Amino acid sequence: MDLSLTPEQEAFRATVRTWLKTNIPREWTPMGSAEIPRAEQYELLRRWQRTLFDAGFIGLTWPKEYGGGGLTFLEEMVLQQEMALAKAPPILNVLGVGMTGPTVINWGTEEQKKRYPPKILSCEEIWCQGYSEPNAGSDLASLQTRAVKDGEHWVVNGQKVWTSFAHVADYMMLLARTDPSVPKHKGITYFLLDMKLPGVTVKPLRQITGEAEFNEVFFDNVRVHESEVLGGVNNGWAVGLTTLMYERLTLGFGLQMRLRIALDGLIDLARQMEKSGRALTKEPVMRQKLAQIWIETECLKYTGARAITKLLRGEMPGPEASTGKMAWVDTHQRLQELAMEIEGPYSQLWKGSEWAIEGGVWPQSFLRSRANSIEGGTTEIQKNIIAERLLGLPKD
Amino acid sequence: MDFGFSQEQELLRSTARKFLENECTSAFVRARMEEPAGVTDEFWSKLAEQGWLGLVYGEEYGGSGLGFVDLTVLMEEMGRVVMPGPFFATTLLGGLAIREAGSAAQKKEWLTRIASGRAKTTLAWTEPSARWDAAGVTCKARESKGGFVLNGTKLFVLDAHLADALVVVARTSEGPTPEDGTSLFLVPKATSGVNVKLLPTMDQTRKLCEVTFKDATVPADALMGAKGAAWPTLTRVVERATVALCAEMCGGAQRVLDMTTEYAKIRIAFGKPIGTYQGVKHRAADMLVDVENAKSLTYYAAWAVDENAPEAALAASMAKAYVTDAYRKAAGAGIQLHGGIGFTWEHDLHLYFKRAKSSEFTFGDATYHRERVAQLISL
Ligand SMILES: Cc1cc2nc3c(=O)[nH]c(=O)nc-3n(C[C@H](O)[C@H](O)[C@H](O)COP(=O)(O)OP(=O)(O)OC[C@H]3O[C@@H](n4cnc5c(N)ncnc54)[C@H](O)[C@@H]3O)c2cc1C
Ligand SMILES: Cc1cc2nc3c(=O)[nH]c(=O)nc-3n(C[C@H](O)[C@H](O)[C@H](O)COP(=O)(O)OP(=O)(O)OC[C@H]3O[C@@H](n4cnc5c(N)ncnc54)[C@H](O)[C@@H]3O)c2cc1C
Predict the structure, then answer these.
(1) Residues A186-200: tens digit of each pLDDT
(2) Report field, pTM of the whole predicted structure over 0.80
(3) Which is it for the CA torsion A163, A164, A165, A171, positive or negative?
């Protein structure tokens, strides 16, 4: 067991650290909360991702021929740790980088692999994930969006919902039913869909934060060329599961980094706030709560290190790879609740008020955190998966 | 970076598992619960033969010269079978204190005897105040005629009734801070004025004692390390013992999870295995998350201790805070998911439930360690 890095890896860390010092955009004000990209930040974040791409600091684990760095998850881990320390802005094309790229590299034809991944990394093409539908959320396999073959094209009709980034996305990872006559998991195909195709309509949905970060997407006789099928017709379920696996791994690192930034911000906040004449960080109950979140945040780092070790050794990831998301959700939601407790009545002031603390970011990120246990598979579904796949308990 | 166990460590794990499954059965544990000794001579000499009593001592003392990551593997396996007896008190409390603070002569004598199974030791630290900080040390050691005279009461002392010698934390002077003036003494139990009383305990696999010192006189060379400056050493010893304890707790929690999932697969209610129902499934999933997290923090702490990393103290407290909660929750959930059978004396679950509770209050509970984390991260 050895947590130390090789001299080359330490050198990589130093390079990243120096680079971040001079390259984080001056206009970026790191907020205490675990920020997710907001509309007014999109342009800045697009440029930031391009800067990362030009410096080779994104897609580290992807093969070089597809625009990546050809490095290991270790360098990826180091990079994420340094980004957290430097309070770097988040990645705008988060779904493309976290899911589409690895899935295309895993399943794509040579042409697809040359075509898509580089533009995902450079943020030239933003991706969204078209999985959920009004009648297929947790039970994703019962999705009803249809794709019917017509010559060289598939004609898509139906609707997606809760599609994050669809309003800015250039492409969508689309799951559609291509064979309704077979059991539900077997008749689904994975498409790489150009959002500019005629017949695609995006309608923003307002969420509890008041912002419209996700959307409804309607398909009206959208003609997708057959070359945009990923991983074979009727093989979409397997392809989609790969996406989810990568989501857990790569997004996992990113999540840990955002959590770290949020925690540092939270501690700063607690230092500033007073109760009965002393800083909240001196208040025993508050110290207990902050320490607990600190411990859990650190813990995710070591659980991640265990998972990476398995990958580097060429072994299958163990249970520790699957428990990460659940643990993250729980810690992050508690962190955001604690931010409200720290702010007290000030948590009620929304952005726009000169009294609002840090411009009112915490109440906003608090509200946003409610989605954590829903998006990317609800906590209940994660628990079913852990119980059935890892513990071997019988399926219902 | 390689944050996993080596092949040798995996081998140690499988050897330990096989040995303990044969030698430390539920029947063996239960028999030891009923008697004061908590261990048999035969079992103890087998532990010595395996080389486990001196696992972390240098080869010059007949030890194996291994580290805390290796020890973690062994402790997990011992926790898995709720191993009773003075292993922990002897090798990790008394023994480790001697390793860290003893003179060359003390080390030569005692570590060699411990490693070969010929001596047992313990640490007499906490007192009726049940405090884990330096202010809790009120037991006095007064200098007299070239030696020391000890007076006071120690409580919650593990396995003192079995020990040949006790490492005693006593106050030799009052200083500007409570830490100043604390000293360590190596006191043979046969010393006149030392009185040990075995106490009935909830967790019968852990024997706790009251130890009183009434004008107990020891020679000058009983002093371990510099007079009045024992606190940093004691802290170091306790941190290390705490990490080992966390590993033992992880092993116990994992075993409860295993027992519970196995049971949930075979116990039928309403025509189906209870593991089919989400009330059971989700609780089992929560247990798994807790147990995996507990291991992550424990392994990290073991590594930090082996490396003498500056963050070792923080790592130990993070682990103890988390593992304490995780084991208690897992053991509680284990009983719950077994229904009535889990509440019986016959079923082994209560052994784990009680061990989780006794471990909780060994070397600081979760609240104590979270506060320590808060201090170490400068909150
Ligand atoms: C902010 C946000 C962003 C999102 N972005 C995207 C996106 O970009 N692309 C995309 O495709 N989707 C996205 N989603 C959708 C998300 O994946 C779904 O909301 C989620 O999978 C749950 O589906 P549902 O909303 O239909 O809830 P339902 O599936 O109807 O679930 C309702 C409740 O029932 C529970 N439940 C359902 N089945 C079971 C079961 N078998 N056992 C126990 N409990 C069960 C659920 O856990 C939940 O609590 C996003 C959601 C949110 C909130
Ligand atoms: C101290 C004590 C005193 C008792 N006294 C009496 C008494 O005087 N008279 C008497 O008749 N009984 C008595 N009982 C028995 C008690 O009522 C049963 O233990 C209880 O009903 C549970 O049944 P079980 O032990 O068979 O557990 P099981 O039914 O086998 O349950 C095991 C676990 O599975 C869970 N489970 C089972 N089915 C489901 C489901 N559908 N969904 C989700 N979870 C499920 C349970 O909640 C439990 O966690 C006593 C029990 C105790 C502990």
Answers:
(1) 999 999 999 999 999
(2) yes
(3) negative
